[in-house]
Amino acid sequence: MKAYISFVSAISRACGVIAILLVAAAALVVCHMVFIRYFMNGSTVWQTEFVVYSLVAATFLGSPFVLLERGHVNVDLLPNMLPEPARSIMNGVAGLFGLAFAALLAWSGWIYFEEAWTYGWTTDTVWAPPLWIPLLPLPLGIGIMCLQYIAEILRPFADGNPGAATL
Description:
Blueprint: H1 2-39, H2 47-68, H3 77-81, H4 84-119, H5 132-135, H6 137-158
């Protein structure tokens, strides 16, 4: 169990690094786009689309790392008012709901990705990259977030303190 948690945590950290690199790449491409359009008086074909896809990919691929670091938005007024056993149960149930939602999102994202891959869809722009490329981060990132949810649900049991669930 501890090996699984460590392995998934390492994957989530790698996803966080990839998300940072995607945001940095988007910032560099925006600078390139500004330079080409305003200083060279040229047109931009792929830059806007690349920036949008990079930022969306960073969002999905960065979500497992955010869960690992407990950075998602949450309201903790009610859990903080509850006694410890009820708080742990509430956190466990919330983790299961989050896992179910993420699994449904990953599954539906996979179907969309698979259709784009199978039918050779491209975007309706001049650049026209294959659509599966910008669609892949959804099932991949959210799928890894499902693995991270499972790790977070198992973490209190691996630590020998099943009453200390903190999702």
